[in-house]
Amino acid sequence: MCMVKSGFIRDRQGTIAIMFALLMPIMIGAMGLGAEVGYWYFSQRKVQNSADVAAHAGTVELRAHQNKQVIGASALLAATDTGFDVAIGSLNANNPPTSGTYIGDSNAVEVVIRENLPRLFTALFLDGDIPISGRAVGRVMNGAPTCILSLHPTASGAVTFTGTSDTSLIACNVHSNSLASDAISVTGGGHVDTPCVSAVGNVSATSGLVMDQCRSPIEHADKIDDPYEGLPQPAPSAPCAPMNVFEGPPSSTYTIDPGTYCGGMTIKRTVNMKPGVYVVTGDFVIESNARVKGDGVTIFVTGGTIRIAGTANVQLTAPTNGTYSGILFFIDPDDAYATHIVNGDSSSYFTGAVYGPNAHIEFAGNSTVGGGCTQIVSSTITFTGALAVSTDCTGKGLNIIDDNQLVVLVE
Fold it and tell me: Which residues make Cβ contacts (< 8 Å) with residue 42, sequence separation at least 6?
């Protein structure tokens, strides 16, 4: 009996061995097929990533007005840098796209990548390569408007964020027309939040530059023309205003009229400015304890500088029509490279353009230049303190500085 039972057990073990031997190729095949399918999926994702990167690179060249040959070469270089294998595939860069939503759009670049993957395990029972493809479309689009614009063509650090500057630009961009390698500079402890920065030259920035629309600074961008070029200078009128220094005890309050303020204007107490154009022939100074308000005001400074203290409370709004529509401060273009210092307390706002085509403007201390719509257009600009700028300029009378430098993947 024992011998019979032992033989039976051996028979069962032999059967299991035979079944295992028969199933092993199927199991190995399933594992191999699963691994190869995973490889196909991974490769397809890689090709799509290469197409995305290539479309972005080609569209950057389009933005720089390069020809189709340069666009294609840049797209191919970007694709190969991210793993595209030209030996087993092809890349076509089309401007304008030949398919999809943006077909025929001259502002868009379409990239189509195809690779033929050699079979691995499945070559045991199937012939032919595995075709995979990726497609992407990049487009040059209007981004947020520009609210910080440096006009100097060559200056180093034409727009600089430095020291303890903490600048928040709400839905508006920074642009420099300078060709310098550091046309825009974020250095030291400087910090700026903005949708995008762009420069005709290059951007030199630490991690203090934070952008929420652009992947990286836009370099070698188009020049942005002076939005107020040709603005006529207001002529001084006679006679000069009877008073140009506003001081006295803390309760002193003045209401002043437009006109010419010879020898400058110094505000130490509370001043309410009536609507109109104020021609200041000398320094325009708002001291630390001053409170200044005015709607529909343009202040033209000639032969002097602007100096606004950090603890002053200043609430000024530019006119919304007429010759100086949207212009809050106009600095004489003939007063080249003078430095103008603008500050204010946390309740201050400047609604309008601060315009000095040949001036250097510095924002220091705890300036808050907000309140709905602010532009700063100057030769060079430096930020060393806190600043908040927004650009809800609807109905404010300013010339909107459109920025069509943004490259976006749209398909």
Answer: none
